[in-house]
Specification:
The structure is a single chain. The protein contains one helix and five strands. The model has no long low-confidence stretch (mean pLDDT 89). The chain is an alpha+beta fold and 89 residues long. The two termini are 23 Å apart.
């Protein structure tokens, strides 16, 4: 399985709101942008969800996640919201 697309949001409606909207990934990716544009934050979100999917006992940061995963002849869509360390839906 590989991550094909990811969206993430946190602190929606608040001053510190941050969103990653429909980031599409290929087999090899290059992320470029200005300083403080969110490159490292995007990589941290991807890394964090990867750790959780491979080891469910790992804590994950609060936020809303939407993922599309692609495997051999299969696709999986995954959406969840985590608040105070608990899955909301």
């Amino acid at each position: 399985m590989r991550l094909k697309k990811i969206s993430y949001s946190e602190h929606v409606g608040e001053a510190q709101e941050w969103k990653l909207v429909n980031l599409e990934l290929g087999r090899v990716n290059l992320i470029v942008g200005k300083n403080a544009a969110g490159k490292t934050r995007a990589l941290n979100v991807i890394s964090g969800i990867g750790r959780v999917l491979t080891n469910p006992s790992v804590a994950i940061r609060d936020g809303s996640y939407s993922l599309e995963l692609e495997g051999n002849d299969s696709y999986i869509s995954y959406e969840t919201e985590i608040k105070n360390g608990c899955i909301q839906f």
